[in-house]
Automatic annotation (TrEMBL):
The lineage of its organism: Bacteria, Pseudomonadati, Pseudomonadota, Gammaproteobacteria, Cellvibrionales. This is 2-oxoisovalerate dehydrogenase subunit beta. Its cofactor is thiamine diphosphate. E1 component of the 2-oxoglutarate dehydrogenase (OGDH) complex which catalyzes the decarboxylation of 2-oxoglutarate, the first step in the conversion of 2-oxoglutarate to succinyl-CoA and CO(2). One of its GO terms (molecular function) is oxidoreductase activity, acting on the aldehyde or oxo group of donors, disulfide as acceptor.
Length: 673
């Protein structure tokens, strides 16, 4: 039974119908374009779900944030994304809101508050937490709404996000548009749950079920919910009951609803049903509603005509917006000259690497109130597993945020807050754990600048400890995972070998406008101490450094292998081989100018890393050296990495499988035979 129409302001209901009419015309326009062959793009129709965003629209403004999914074009229309830019984006045109680089499943329009659209089911929920967290930390009353379908409730990211939101009482609304079908599978076949609201209750916050096909009930219910969230009462999970009348993708009617079932669903369709209710209640005449519908038809037709006249986004845009600086993109033969940091002559203090990291974090938080830290166990006790945060929670309060054990939630929150100008530093305890949150790092943080056509970017930093060289940590706590991450355009990666570089690179990462990852070697965390510059100290990204001058061969390396190579170079010197050791420091952007310059001098090169040799960074560097310096080499450049096996728990095996001083020396000897 429909809610009493008198319980809503007539003007509000008329505005809700106007939004539904606009959504319906966009839906019709796209389906007509696809059916005729005029359009060529993938479309996931939301036919039947129009009332949900239309009923919310009068309750929020462009200052409030929204995250949605690839089926969320109705959410985009109601949120205020301009239709000309929306159609142009779907068509891959220059005039698109994201320059045609994101397309229909990746719309970002910060001007309307539509912050991110994801094509990964459920992945928007952790990012929405970050948007909400930023506003909570800034003390605003802005609300974030994250839209997803019922199918996303099976995804772990949603559960992690809901748990974190409940713990932190974030101003976020989890909007499950329950259309009863997860892609092609109806609910009884993929969950035994009787409803989804109980999941919120189990996590300690409110879950509400509303009729998403009744704009009166839905608007009235959402008004109370949005007011509650604005007032700081924490998150709410809304199960908006509706029905998807179209197929999972494409055009036409649902293949799963047939005969009488489809007819009943159409009878409950909110667009025609609401139109009739307005007429029956005497709120609008048929002629008034015809005018609203005609205006929507004209708006969509104008938008399509404008979008079709916009130029197709050209290949000249291919490598733009991957990073803020196009020169960061690695290209064959590229030798970008970057200035090194000036020689430091100021005050220093003896620090281990963990102390240098803490110093960098502390100074960065002093310099910019948008810097904050989040990660597992980083509160004052224990102050981080590796003690990098000892005492910092007492000093900085909520800017040091211990999290649940939930890597997707951690990286998602960092990504979302970075979208609105925060500079989060997220800790992933071990580099091995990156596999748990790979989607958030590589599909969202790394790609967001590009997919949004640079309308948004993600200035976040992720710190992770790389094991190895110690023994006793085994296959799941000892990997060096940089090769996985280097294959993901959009990320910058640094790997310091000393406390000074850990501090200088980390500060540069924190204040960089692209997502950065700092890998810190467990072997060096406590063992290596040196005099570290005091105060704000930064090492520019993309600048390698010669750690030992040489004339006969260049050992190109990074991380804890720098120490191994320096010791190997001393052993080689006893045999008359003068090795130069080049510490990359930054793996991307990669300093090919200094790499090639060093090898031009020595005529030989061996790239050494702790990561598995097969398909490792050493292969890329050695190949480039061979291509660029073919006529100048005394021998082919080569690479030396770990054996192709998980890292063994046994220190004896680990020592043998990862390059060490003796094996590096032996490998160099082979190159001189």
């Amino acid at each position: 039974m429909s809610t009493d129409i008198k319980s809503i302001d007539p003007g509000t209901l008329k505005e809700i119908y106007r939004q539904m009419s606009r959504i319906r015309e966009v839906d019709k326009g796209i389906q007509a374009g696809l059916s005729s062959g005029k359009f060529m793009f993938t479309y996931w129709p939301m036919t039947g779900q129009e009332a949900i965003p239309a009923s919310i629209a009068p309750l929020i403004s462009s200052e409030d944030h929204m995250v949605t999914i690839y089926r969320g074009i109705h959410d985009q229309v109601a949120k205020g994304v301009p239709l000309k830019g929306l159609f142009a984006e779907a068509l891959g045109r220059e005039g698109g809101v994201n320059k045609g680089k994101g397309g229909s499943p990746h719309i970002s329009d910060p001007s309307s508050g539509s912050m991110l659209t994801t094509a990964i089911v459920g992945a928007g929920a952790p990012i929405a937490n970050g948007l909400a967290l930023a506003e909570k930390m800034r003390g605003t009353d802005k609300v974030t709404i994250v839209n997803f379908g019922d199918g996303a409730t099976s995804i772990g990211a949603v559960h992690e996000a809901m748990n974190l939101a409940g713990v932190w009482k974030l101003p976020v609304i989890f909007m499950c548009q329950n259309n009863l079908i997860g892609e092609y599978t109806p609910i009884p076949e993929y969950t035994a749950s009787k409803n989804f609201t109980d999941r919120a209750e189990a996590l300690g916050f409110r879950g509400v079920r509303l009729n998403g096909n009744d704009p009166v009930e839905f608007h009235n219910g959402m008004k109370e919910i949005i007011d509650s969230v604005r007032s700081g009462n924490g998150p709410v999970f809304v199960e908006a009951m509706t029905l998807r009348l179209g197929p999972h993708a494409g055009v036409g009617w649902s293949h799963l609803l047939k005969g009488e079932e489809l007819q009943e669903a159409k009878a409950d369709w909110p667009v025609p049903a609401t139109r009739q209710r307005l007429i029956d209640a005497g709120i609008c005449t048929a002629e008034e509603l015809d005018d609203i519908d005609s205006a929507a038809v004209a708006e969509v037709a104008e938008a399509i005509e404008w979008a079709m006249s916009s130029e197709v986004t050209g290949e000249d845009e291919m490598l733009l917006d991957v990073y803020g600086d196009p020169d960061t993109v690695p290209k064959r033969g590229q030798r970008v000259k970057r200035d090194a940091e000036p020689e430091y002559t100021g005050e220093t203090k003896t620090m281990a690497m963990f102390e240098a990291v803490q110093d960098a974090l502390d100074l960065s938080m002093q310099a910019d109130e948008n810097v904050y830290c989040l990660g597992e166990d980083i509160g004052d006790d224990p102050g981080g597993v590796f003690k990098c945060f000892k005492g910092m929670q007492s000093k900085w309060g909520e800017r040091i945020r211990p999290t649940p054990i939930a890597e997707q939630a951690i990286i998602g929150a960092a990504t979302g807050s970075a979208l609105v100008g925060m500079r989060p530093v997220a800790e992933i305890m071990f580099a091995d754990f990156v596999g748990v949150c790979m989607d958030q790092i590589t599909n969202h943080a790394a790609k967001q600048r590009y997919m949004s056509g640079a309308t948004t970017h993600v200035p976040m930093t992720v710190r992770m400890i790389a094991g190895g060289g110690i023994g006793g940590f085994g296959a799941q706590h000892s990997q060096s995972t940089e090769a996985l991450l280097l294959h993901q355009p959009g990320l910058k990666i640094v790997y310091p070998s000393t406390p000074t570089e850990a501090k200088g690179l980390l500060m540069s990462c924190i204040f960089d406008d692209d997502p950065c990852i700092q890998m810190e070697s467990m072997m060096l965390t406590y063992a290596l101490k040196e005099e570290v510059p005091v105060g704000d100290y930064r090492i520019p990204l993309g600048v390698a450094k010669v750690k030992r001058e040489g004339t006969d061969i260049t050992l190109v390396t990074y991380g804890w292998q720098v120490m191994q190579c320096l010791q190997a170079a001393e052993e080689l010197a006893k045999e008359g081989i003068n090795a130069e050791v080049l510490d990359l420091r930054t793996l991307l952007p990669l300093d090919y100018d200094r790499i090639l310059g060093s090898v031009e001098k020595t005529g030989r090169a061996l790239v050494v890393h702790a990561a598995v040799e097969f398909c490792g960074l050493g292969s890329e560097i050695a190949s480039t050296i061979n291509e660029e310096l073919f006529t100048k080499l005394k021998a082919p450049a080569s690479r030396f990495g770990a054996a192709y096996a998980p890292i063994a728990y046994s220190k004896t095996i680990e020592t043998a499988q990862v390059p060490n001083v003796a094996s590096i020396v032996a490998r160099v000897r082979e190159m001189f035979k």
